[in-house]
Design a protein that fits this description.
The protein has seven helices and ten strands. It is an alpha/beta fold. α1 packs across α7, α2 (81-99) crosses α3 (111-121) and α4 (138-155) crosses α5.
């Protein structure tokens, strides 16, 4: 692993580059897009494992922190959806320089999947676009996070500690909340990807909505890849499933062969 800072001066992002541990021709790369807020903390180790697996398969891999989160520059109160979408393009350009590969495969988890799809909608050319348990839209995603937060605090017999500009104790300004609530994965239209794959712990009706609305560069709907969950916590589900990580690694590495 090689920690690195990249991007414009004053707006640098923090990332971790995993060079390939096996030789493959042609070279291939994968860019990983974390979820946001408390889900970032819960899934950080899963991203490390996925990055390591892809590195062992011979891919150049980069994972990064969104602007205003983790070790990237900026204050959480300055985060915005347009800025986060531009972060995907900035990270993709950095990975292209590191790997000398023009088009990465893009893997996004939860909100990271939605932001990744929006970056592709705005012109980022990719090979595979892997939507890992994607947030279908921003409004329902925020409601789900709020419900999870309440359930966890209720289990501790104490009220939620988040204020009006917070969620799970992380900054969530009113402006950012409005931007997120306006997002809908079903409305992003055709995407410049060779293939779109949805990875989930269980097939649900909303995945059929994505099949009806999303199309890759050849006009095909997403593939639905079900990785049976091997964790018991329903709020974590496939996000922490080693089977999901292995399925994603096999999908991306196989497409790059």
């Amino acid at each position: 692993m090689q920690p690195t800072f990249f991007g414009k001066s004053g707006q640098q992002l923090f990332g971790v580059y995993h060079p390939p541990l096996a030789r493959r021709s042609p070279a291939a790369s994968a860019l990983l897009c974390h979820p946001a807020a408390q889900e970032y903390m819960r899934t950080h180790w899963a991203f490390r494992k996925l990055a390591a697996e892809l590195s062992r398969a011979g891919l150049h891999v980069l994972r990064f922190d969104w602007h205003g989160t983790g070790d990237s520059s900026g204050e959480p109160q300055g985060a915005s959806v347009p800025l986060w979408i531009s972060d995907v393009g900035t990270a993709a350009a950095e990975l292209a320089d590191l790997a000398d590969v023009a088009r990465p495969s893009l893997v996004g988890l939860r909100l990271g999947a939605l932001l990744a799809a929006l970056a592709v909608q705005r012109g980022l050319a990719v090979k595979d676009l892997v939507l890992w348990e994607p947030a279908l839209d921003g409004a329902s995603h925020l409601r789900e996070l709020a419900e999870i937060e309440k359930a966890r605090y209720d289990s501790l017999a104490m009220p939620s500690r988040s204020g009006p500009e917070e969620l799970f104790g992380y900054a969530m300004t009113s402006a950012l909340r409005r931007e997120l609530e306006a997002l809908d994965l079903r409305k992003v239209g055709p995407l410049r990807a060779d293939r779109i794959v949805v990875v989930t712990g269980a097939a649900r009706p909303e995945h059929e909505e994505l099949r009806a609305s999303l199309r890759d560069g050849a006009g095909r709907p997403p593939e639905i890849l079900v990785a049976v969950e091997d964790v018991k916590d329903p709020t974590d589900g496939v996000m922490l499933s080693s089977k999901a990580q292995m399925a994603i690694a096999a999908t991306v590495a196989g497409a790059a062969a």
